[in-house]
């Protein structure tokens, strides 16, 4: 199992945000993106998740079990700034929708909705509409979404925003559990996640304004 | 996919969903016509099918821009785009859910509004049938407009204007089939079958175009 990025460059409008970013992540490895605001962390994550087209370069996913034609994004969970949960639906409706819709990737099983909510420490409020929860609780529930369907790669953009210290440690232990289970983590963060032997990539931002890539 | 259909249906009836808004707007538009036109029952009966169709068209346009925008605002759209399921299928299911939530209530409300317009039973039946067949086409056409304007914060009116030229044939054949049912010399089947054909054509082309637009609209 291997996630590869080759010479990625991406552009936002006219500006080249970064270029020649390459990395290889094997099962159990993690890469933490750091850098100041606007340095291109989120852009890189969206490129890897297949939501933005890279200017040059490509992202590749290798695995023995999955066929070669699939897009790398199919192996990924993406947790962006927005939680991808509906405020009008209850937490359990939200989670069970994502569980059925996402389905499990080869080689793993997601937790049930109850177990996932329990794992983020909010097992007793799954009957509430998602919109009633506080920002921190919403973030925890969005994290529970990663647990209900199995994906080997987790792409997390500022996962610990709006969280208390307790929740941060819960997230860290869940991430460690994912990594020991052979998962891959790609995260952008300002706070240290407390992971041992995580690779770090410092994003510089603005690789060159209006500079040509070719 | 069934899960997506059920979720979208639930959303359309819960708070903030557009299902009731569309029907209310439809009723408002059609209900004020008799007051404006005056108590000329023959005239009302004559323009009835056209007014009901125009009302339904406008209400169908009203809810279109929210089709993908709510999903984009809360980040769900990113996740829908990343999955293994073909995006065309995802869009098709979203169209079906949108039609069941927004289009079908219009069809169900149309007989009541037909009474407002002093339409005969045959005309009411024909209008309802043509709406049942024609409104899915409006949803499929609208999906393309909604997908194109998904990144625009106030895309509502733009979607309506983008979609309107393509929706006009649906209106023309829908109304002419409804009239053909009551007026003797004109045959009912040809315009009705063309309406069916338009719906089936856009059922294929609409999701394709919308999927393409959503893929390229990423930001």
Give unreliable regions of chain A as ranges.
208-214
- SSE sequence of chain B, one letter per element: HHHHHHHHH
> What is Rg of chain A?
17 Å
In terms of structural class, how would the helical and strand content of chain A be classed? alpha/beta
What's the CATH C level of chain A?
A: Alpha Beta
Shape of chain B: elongated
How would a crystallographer describe the biggest sheet of chain B?
Answer: none
Describe this structure in words.
The complex is a heterodimer of chains A (214) and B (219). Chain A has 214 residues and is an alpha/beta fold. Chain A has one domain: Rossmann fold, CATH 3.40.50. Helices cover 27% and strands 25% of the residues of chain A. Chain A contains five helices and eight strands; from the N terminus they run E-E-E-H-E-E-H-H-H-E-H-E-E. In chain A, the strands form two sheets. In chain A, strands 5-6-7-3-8 form a five-stranded parallel β-sheet, sandwiched between helices. In chain A, helix 2 runs parallel beside helix 4 and helix 3 packs across helix 4. Chain B is mainly alpha-helical and 219 residues long. Chain B has one domain. In chain B, helix 3 packs antiparallel against helix 6 and helix 6 runs antiparallel to helix 7. The radius of gyration of chain B is 18 Å and the shape is elongated.
